[in-house]
Known about the structure:
Layout: E1 2-6, E2 11-16, E3 19-24, E4 27-32, E5 38-42, E6 45-51, E7 54-60, E8 63-68, E9 71-76
Parallel strand pairs: 1-9
Antiparallel strand pairs: 1-2, 3-4, 3-6, 5-8, 6-7, 8-9
Amino acid sequence: MTIEVLTPDDRLYVGEGTMVVAPGKDGNLGIMENHAPLITTLKEGKVEIETPEGRKSFDVSGGVLEVLKNKVIVLAE
Length: 77
């Protein structure tokens, strides 16, 4: 699936991945391929991505996560 992690100032990650774990407002979210469409807010924590090159993680202080048609977009603060 395609994953984008964006901030107002930068593109932290754009590429392929097999899993995203993000700090949702009501607990951690695990997103894998063919996940149902979803829009949710994020709280402070780490967004972790499993990529072909290995695991990447990014600290976020909040934001929004959208899943649609095997594409995950994280708009991070």
